[in-house]
Amino acid sequence: MCTVVRTVRRMARKGGGQRGISTAEWRRMRRPDCSNQPPPIQSQPPPPPTRVSRARRDPPIAKPPTAIPPPPFTPRPMAPLASDSVEFVPMSSSTSSAASADTPSSPTSLVSSSSQLSRVSSELSSSSISSVPTLNGSSSAGAGGSVVNGGLNGSVLAKRHIAASLKPKQPKMFQAVRFVSFVFYFTTAVLTINFTQLIGWPLRLISKDWSHAWVDYTKQSFGLVVTTMTQWWSPTPVHVVGDHSVAGLIVRTEDGRIETKFGEKAVLIANHQIYSDWLYMWWIAYTGHVHGNIYIILKESLKNIPFVGWGMQYFRFIFLSRRWEKDETRLHNAVTQINEDVDWPAWVLIFPEGTNITQSGIDKSHKYAQKFGYREPQHLLLPRARGLYYVLKHMNVPYLYDCTVAYEGVPRGGFGQDFFTLPSIYFEGRPPKSVNMHWRRFARAAIPLEDESEFESWLQKRWLEKDALLDSYYTNGHFDGEVLVDTEVKLKSVREILQVYAFPATVALAANVAWRVWQLLR
Predict the structure, then answer these.
(1) Domain-embedded: residue 156
(2) Do residues 291 and 264 touch, judged by C-beta distance below 8 A?
(3) Which of 39, 345, 372, 421 shows its CA 20 to 30 Å from the CA of 455?
């Protein structure tokens, strides 16, 4: 329309509109040209209703504190130990120099800052389990966090991924089959042993020797059960190493098993890594043919476990409450009874640390070391000497055998219970890749038993030597020694497992025969 108006005005100025409109002008008239008009007014949406903001409704949220990076690892100096009457053979210098050349000088080079720890944790959480490398030796600490006070202070997620990468998990269906079969076997075996114990309980009223033999028979049966559990549901290679003191006492048989010749009377000590330590030590007793004559010193709470704890009480295991006024009486009664049974073998197993190594245990051990001025080991808890001192002083044994246990797959500074638990070992099919043992023997006559403080000092030195052995293992991946036997946990014959069910089967058969005879006589 604006073009038409301009055309009409132009024609009016030329003469009142006498001339017609040309074609070009007509085309221009039809072409829209509104450049001079103001832009159209766009409709605006209605303003939103006024409301009180969340900042006015809710109180301000405090910002989380900034994460403080963990302090760097500073290893405690290992001063040379004072020599005493018992000889200790350290690692050879050639091996030590080769190991030091291949490993970093300090674990702080693995994780130098909290940002690196966050990056590692994010990579582990975003990647699949199969992409996480298997960690062992000194380089393992970097995947879980920095090493502080001997503990692995990394994220829980990183620890779980590392544990999952140690050995691939079995399919869910396979785990279910393992679980059902294990529970069926273990439950039937334990109930059978409990039934056998109940039937033989009146023997103590008839003869002490008969009762002792019956107790050892049931204890032997349970030793076969735990050995079968490991052989069938948790097959694991075992590397047994010893120094010159056990030369000739650990031998390998033709079928690949080992036999230990520690004698009929002995006291065994070991460091406590995971909950299955006592199972492997019971297997060691099986290799020495004394799995029916072992006495394990345990904490008191374990005797209340249904069926299993009741059976352990019948086995005459020694339960301690960590109160010396009670424990002294229990140790006195147990040791006196063992000494009276002169003709019966007896192995006493004790874990001087009292519990498996954890961060809370390290904290308690640190307080104990500060209280009495002891040097702290890097890979162990400080031992408690009183119970072991009482056993060695009052029990007639010629030797003390010391075992240092390490499990392949637990990184330096890590806790075994974070990687290997009883469900993961027997249900999920993730046992340790190998069990490593280092054995030493000490003559009882060479141990200072005249004074408890002297014995405690002697034990602390032995524990620092064990710590040096573990440090060598984490560096080299194996123990060094003069005796080396590679084997696995297994029975001499599968027929041995029938011993567990022999007596109940005999009772059932006799009852069936008696019932049929009674029916015929009627």
Answers:
(1) yes
(2) no
(3) 345
